[in-house]
Design a protein that fits this description.
10 helices, single chain, Rossmann fold, 19% helix, 27% strand, alpha+beta, 31 strands
Length: 616
């Protein structure tokens, strides 16, 4: 592609400045630099006279700070347990572990060219092949003990950092109540506040479009947490995450019927952080028990690899056979006559941990692990998949779609007999259940169980042709001249070597990218997503001088709807994923069109990559 000298000149000036700032920020604060090698790129740009590479907060190989935060999977890193170990029957503890070797950073210390250490939303959604953002008609509840006075403000910091829409009390997205549904909150507790921050941030990472309900129990006793569980369901939540647990005892059968028997609600529970051994309420017959993995990038087709999280005899994901809870009908492993833990898994190893923001008696940005991370991740995946059938036990969905998960086949969390209780292998095992999410299919209703999963006769598919432009040609896209881009120095792709670069000339200009698709009438879900990078030389903080519209058109070219409008005010240092439901266009042939319009004041570049339209 031929680039005008003005476009190249502006790109070089902008990226040299950005790279210099990135290196300086990293040297001063220890925050992860979001470029494979900012120093190398800067040196190359200075020496060659060519435009230098931009920094990026999201790539398939080094994303959202994961490079600095991620130690070797399974290697023990120094951590602190946020909640005290239970000392009496019926007392629970949160499952959060915070790394003490990663320097905490306050929000104002993060520069535009660096992001916190730890996996962020783009990493997690990539690792688990997730589409969609969730719906405002869905509520994901977080049940924890004690109060986090900074819950809403810390949530705002996390979502702002990653370009997610605000979720506040004022706009109706966020609600915090006590275990009775009121606003007289329990006493504040710094340990549980960290747990709450982790839970809220993971929901935001996976299902940022859903509403969030935080229910704070008066204490860590099962009776109070159970009351909070019931209140969450009473307030309408169809997805409830519980990142806490304790030892089984003879009272768990009573607790099970009193607090967790909620048909039609996807209730997830952390499997525990103390390595092999069953914990309650993960062993409840009414919940989805969520184990933990070590998650690392890889050169395979998935781009990621996982193993059982286990770093010592007292640290790792829990698993085991319940001593008290009967086996549900949908669980069929033969070695445990009672309820077997777990059903499914997600990242939990602090060495491959997630970025979390917590400012209540804490230092801000930190790296967290524990199955406290995996439980809200899975609850949010359920939300992306759709509301469960009114009489369903959503854990059974996993057992109906076992081939639609990433099977974790390596690692162990202890010594046991039979071996699958604590050792991963092909198919079901205790530490990781049937595996980790590979899209949404395993979390939708299957067989005759009802629910709102896929439509009858619909073959799940991705409909966008040449979604990452990697063919090196436009087809089946229609692109204006100069949009197809392989200049990995000026505007690198989100993945691969090609992208669509709209505008960026610093003069009055319009670029378009469009593609027509037909959404089968037999499908019930249609989720459109794409990755977008915006950089600008505009200095205004109030005027949208350059815009990108994302629209749906019919076969005659009439605009049926505008999904979003972005501008120079939305500039970010890397790529951000944006997702929209196209369910209202099911059964139609539509054109998805991006229109970038630039004025003559200063350049703004809109760079598109890795589009997808997933139907089921």
């Amino acid at each position: 592609m031929r680039i005008t000298s003005e476009r190249a000149r502006r790109r070089k000036i902008r990226t040299l400045t950005a790279l210099s700032a990135t290196i300086a920020a990293a040297a001063l604060s220890g925050v992860a630099v979001q470029s494979a090698s900012a120093a190398t790129a800067l040196a190359a740009a200075l020496g060659s006279g060519s435009a230098s590479t931009s920094t990026s907060t999201s790539t398939s190989s080094s994303a959202s700070g994961s490079g600095a935060a991620t130690a070797a999977a399974g290697r023990q890193v120094p951590v602190k347990r946020l909640c005290s170990t239970p000392t009496r029957r019926g007392q629970m503890a949160c499952m959060s572990l915070v790394r003490t070797d990663v320097k905490g950073v306050s929000a104002h210390a993060i520069t535009p060219n660096a992001t916190p250490s730890g996996y962020g939303p783009t990493d997690l959604r990539s690792a688990y092949n997730l589409t969609g953002t969730g719906s405002s008609s869905e509520t994901i509840a977080i049940v924890d003990a004690m109060d986090d006075p900074n819950a809403e403000s810390d949530l705002a910091t996390y979502r702002s950092q990653y370009g997610l829409a605000a979720c506040t009390t004022a706009n109706g997205c966020f609600r915090k109540v006590n275990q009775s549904g009121g606003t007289s909150y329990p006493s504040a507790d710094s340990g549980w506040a960290g747990e709450i921050s982790l839970d809220l941030d993971m929901v935001s990472a996976i299902a940022p479009g859903a509403h969030i309900l935080l229910v704070e129990a008066s204490s860590a006793n099962m009776s109070d947490l159970g009351a909070a569980e019931n209140e969450a369901v009473a307030l309408g939540a169809k997805f409830v995450s519980n990142s806490w647990g304790g030892s089984e005892d003879s009272s768990v059968s009573s607790s099970d019927s009193s607090y967790f028997n909620h048909p039609g609600v996807a209730i997830t529970v952390s499997a525990g952080d103390s390595a092999y051994g069953a914990e309650y309420p993960a062993t409840s017959q009414y919940v989805t028990a969520v184990g933990g993995t070590s998650l690392s990038t890889a050169s395979n087709s998935r781009g990621w690899t996982e193993s059982v999280w286990h770093t010592s005899s007292t640290e790792g994901t829990g698993s085991g056979c319940s001593a008290y809870i009967a086996k549900p009908s949908w669980q069929t492993d033969s070695g445990c006559s009672n309820r077997m833990e777990a059903d499914v898994a997600a990242v939990a190893d602090p060495a491959t941990g997630v970025a979390v923001y917590d400012s209540y008696q804490a230092t801000g940005w930190q790296v967290y692990g524990g199955t406290s991370a995996s439980s809200p991740i899975i609850a949010s995946v359920y939300a992306l998949a759709g509301t469960p059938g009114s009489t369903d036990r959503p854990a059974q969905y996993i057992y109906q779609h076992t081939s639609s998960l990433y099977d974790v086949t390596s690692g162990s969390n202890g010594s046991c007999s039979p071996s699958y209780f604590c050792t991963a292998g092909t198919g079901y095992d205790g530490p990781t259940g049937w595996g980790t999410p590979n899209g949404l299919t395993a979390f939708t209703a299957g067989g005759s169980s009802g629910g709102t999963g896929g439509g009858s006769g619909c073959t799940a598919a991705q409909l966008i042709g040449n979604p990452g432009f990697e063919s090196g040609t436009a087809s089946p896209w229609t692109l204006t001249s100069g949009v197809l881009n392989s200049d990995t120095t000026s505007e690198p792709a989100h993945s691969g070597s090609w992208d669509a670069w709209l505008d960026g000339y610093g003069s009055s200009h319009t670029d378009t990218a469009s593609q027509s698709v037909t959404i089968p009438s037999t499908c019930t879900t249609a989720a459109f997503s794409f990755y977008l990078h915006i950089d600008t030389s505009e200095t205004t903080t109030t005027s949208a001088n350059d815009t990108l519209k994302v629209q749906v058109l019919n076969s005659s070219g009439t605009v049926l709807g505008t999904l979003a409008t972005y501008s120079n005010l939305n500039h970010v240092s890397g790529y951000a994923q944006h997702s929209f439901s196209l369910a209202s266009y099911i059964g139609q042939t539509i054109t998805l069109k991006f229109t970038g319009t630039e004025n003559s004041s200063a350049q703004t570049s809109f760079v598109l990559d890795d589009a997808a339209l997933n139907v089921s």
